[in-house]
Design brief:
Helix content is about 50%, strand content about 10%. By secondary structure, the protein is α/β, with parallel strands linked by helices. It folds into 4 domains: about 110 residues, 2-Layer Sandwich (GMP Synthetase, Chain A, domain 3), CATH 3.30.300; about 180 residues, P-loop containing nucleotide triphosphate hydrolases (Rossmann fold), CATH 3.40.50; about 70 residues, Helicase, Ruva Protein, domain 3; about 90 residues, Chromosomal Replication Initiator Protein Dnaa, Chain: A. β1 and β2 form a beta hairpin. The protein is elongated, with a radius of gyration of 26 Å. The protein starts with 8 loop residues before the first helix and ends with a helix. Oligomerizes as a right-handed, spiral filament on DNA at oriC. It comes from Tsuneonella dongtanensis. It is found in: Cytoplasm. Keywords: ATP-binding, Cytoplasm, DNA replication, DNA-binding, Lipid-binding, Nucleotide-binding.
Length: about 500
């Protein structure tokens, strides 16, 4: 049974006597549904809108009696924005995913914590209300001497101690540590370049934590480039541009994420340019992060490009298998004494290759399912419960490649895949190849049939269902298929 679906009768029986257990499992199922919905919205809306407004949404409670599902956002501003623009789309997506959802309510998270307010000296508040974690202003002395941890919007889990280094990211990590050290860095600004999910945001948060550790009275400004533009426009509309500029230039450390989203905004670019110049002139520290190099930022004026690239551009490459394995092993320490077999760790590290965020998310989903259903973590459970993640990470495999691999495995001639022979030694490998073609490729049943000697689509359907059934009843067949899957996915 998939974690995205309803709980099977055996698992449900295990939870009937435990109300908390059922609630936990329901939360996992809601989270899995939201992951699917969010991924679909990302394709529809694009990365920029999704990252700014959809990604921060947290799934709240579901009331079965009214069919009402609650979705939470961190601030009143973001909740109202999503309610006005995306409520109908979110409602429809949830009703499709879960027929029992009749109403979707969008609210401010009840547990949100307000940030310290910054005063301009005349009693007015800055454009940023301090409650949106995408743009965080930290003033020394407003929260005592505790160093400002989770309450300022820096994720307490994203520290240098939690960052696993390897050949792909060691330069960026070392540069980030130098930027947060007590002594003045040799370069500024630091520009972190990495694809989505490779650790650049982790390093931004880690710099903030470490800098506050070595400079307890420091003032830090952390935001996304998109949020920077929103705040700048609000300051323009409210005639607070002078205060906005003064506030920006009063900080000791400026951290700006997703700088690629400032593309094309001339006034915001100009303000950022002047802010960089002012902070650098005073020896302040600046760190930017983006998914591309400065020279690849289209629509950015040359003067700003030169400022962004004048310090150090540190590239974070895609993690290799050794780094992925090390990251998984470091995360497993949080789940002790739960045991995750080495072959499962190796399987995840080998197959989830697109980015670290998906890798860790897959591990978390697998362990959550195992804990909430009482099952042991195994290779079979990983393959069953992580089908969406695994499918997205699989390289494009062709039917020709599948046929070649199956023929080598069973030691039969390649021509047998299209032949009319019905000997068992030929039919069964042919059926396995049809099954793998349906599992590993996006081809339809008729398309697969044509690649196997022009066979009818009903023949392919029969083969797929037969192999699925044999895998459940015949350990040898299941072992053969698993071995072939490993060969084809490696």
């Amino acid at each position: 049974m998939s974690i995205n679906g309803s709980v099977g009768s055996g698992n449900a029986a295990r939870y009937r006597g435990t109300e908390d257990g059922m609630e936990d499992l329901e939360a996992v199922n809601l989270a899995a549904d939201w992951a699917d919905i969010s991924q679909g919205l990302r394709k529809d809306l694009g990365h920029q809108l999704h990252s700014q407004w959809i990604k921060p949404i947290q799934v709240g409670g579901f009331a079965e009696d009214t069919g009402t599902l609650e979705l939470y956002l961190p601030t009143e501003f973001s909740a109202n924005w999503v309610l006005d623009r995306f409520h109908d789309r979110l409602s429809l997506a949830w009703k499709i995913a879960r027929s029992e959802v009749r109403n979707v309510e969008i609210k401010v998270h009840p547990g949100r914590r307000k940030l310290p307010e910054l005063s301009f000296g005349d009693g007015r508040r800055p454009a940023n209300d301090g409650s949106d974690t995408s743009m965080i202003a930290v003033a020394a002395g407003t929260i005592g001497d505790r160093g400002f941890t989770s309450s300022i919007g820096l994720d307490p889990s994203l520290t240098f101690a939690a960052f696993v280094t390897g050949e792909a990211n060691v330069l960026a990590c070392n540069a980030a540590q130098r930027m947060s050290a007590t002594e003045q860095p040799q370069f500024s600004p630091l520009y972190l370049k990495a694809a989505t999910g490779q650790g650049k945001t982790h390093l931004l948060h880690a710099i903030g934590h470490a800098y506050l550790g070595s400079h307890p009275r420091a003032r830090i400004f952390y935001c996304s480039a998109e949020r920077f533009m929103v705040e700048f426009v609000q300051a323009l509309k409210s005639n607070q541009t002078i205060e906005f500029k003064a506030r920006l230039r009063s900080f000791d450390l400026l951290l700006v994420d997703d700088i690629q989203f400032i593309i094309g905004k001339a006034s915001a670019q100009e303000e950022l340019l002047y802010t960089i110049d002012a902070l650098l002139a005073e020896g302040k520290r600046l760190v930017f992060a983006a998914d591309r190099a400065p020279q690849a930022l289209d629509g950015v004026e040359p003067r700003l490009l030169s400022r962004l690239s004048m310090g150090l551009v540190a590239d974070i490459q895609a993690a290799d298998i050794e780094l992925r394995r090390s990251i998984l092993e470091s995360k497993l320490t949080r789940f002790a004494p739960l045991e995750v077999p080495a072959d499962v760790v190796d399987f995840l590290a080998r197959t989830i290759t697109r980015n670290i965020r998906e890798l860790v998310g897959g591990l978390n989903k697998l362990i959550a399912y195992a804990q909430l259903t009482g099952q042991e973590v195994s290779l079979q459970l990983a393959e069953e419960q992580l089908t969406d993640i695994l499918s997205a990470n699989r390289r494009r495999i062709t039917i020709d490649e599948i046929q070649r691999t199956v023929c080598q495995f069973y030691r039969i001639d390649r021509a047998e895949m299209a032949s009319k022979r019905r000997a068992r030694a030929v039919v069964r490998p042919r059926q396995v190849a049809m099954y793998l073609s349906k599992v590993l490729t996006p081809r339809s049943y008729p398309e697969i049939g044509r690649k196997f000697g022009g066979r009818d689509h009903s023949t392919v359907i029969h083969a797929v269902r037969l192999i699925e059934d044999l895998r459940q009843r015949d350990a040898d067949m299941d072992g053969d298929v698993r071995s072939l899957l490993r060969q084809l996915e490696s």
